[in-house]
Amino acid sequence: MKKEALELEKFVKKPNKDVPPLICLWIQSVCEKAEPSSSSQLLRESENRTWSHAQKMRAAVSYFYAHEVRLGSDRFSEKTNGEWTGNPTLSDIVARYMRSLYRRKVYIFSW
Fold first, then answer.
1. Distance between CA atoms of 28 and 43, rounded to whole angstroms?
2. Mind listing the pLDDT tens digit of every residue in the chain (111 residues)?
3. Which phi and psi (to 5°) does residue 57 adopt?
4. Contact status, residue 87 vs residue 71, Cβ threshold 8 Å
5. What pTM did the predictor assign?
6. Which among 16, 66, 69, 80 counts the fewest CB atoms within 10 Å?
7. 19 with 7: CB under 8 angstroms?
C-alpha cells in the first residue's frame, strides 16, 4: 500500500504525460454510459452521470492542480528537456475527451 501511495504522490506533485489520460479515465468511469457486454470492467460499471457532472469533475481537478499544487492555469506541455509543465486538466487530451463526451451527452439533444 505504501508503494502505491508514493507513486500517486509523484503524479500529484509532478504530473507527467500519463496524468491527462488518467483524468479522462476517471471522468469516463463516472460519466459514460455503461456497456454491460464490454470486456472492460471500467465500461461495464460506468455510472452514466451528466455532462454537467463531468464538467464539475474536471473543474475540481483543475482547481486542485492550479491552487493546491500551484501549477497555475497554463496549458499542459512538455519542455525541451522532457519535463512537463502546466495544469494537466488543460491538456489537449483532456480537452479532446471532454468535447467528445459533450457530443455524446448533449449535442444529440440540441436538434
1. 8
2. 567 667 777 778 889 999 999 999 999 999 998 888 888 887 788 889 999 999 999 999 999 999 999 999 999 999 999 999 999 999 999 999 999 999 988 876 555
3. -65, -45
4. yes
5. 0.84
6. 80
7. no
Q: Which residues contact 86 (CB under 8 A, 6 or more apart)?
A: 71, 72, 74, 75, 76, 77
Report the pLDDT value the prediction gives residue 109, as an integer from 0 to 100.
56
Q: What is the DSSP letter of 85?
A: E
Using left for φ > 0, alpha for ψ between -120 and 50, and beta otherwise, residue 86 falls in left
Retrieve residue 82's grid coordinates.
Answer: 522532457
Q: What pLDDT, on the 0 to 100 scale, is given for residue 65?
A: 94
Instruction: Of 103, 89, 93, 84, give the one whose Cα is nearest residue 10.
Output: 84
Q: Which residues contact 11 (CB under 8 A, 6 or more apart)?
A: 18, 19, 22
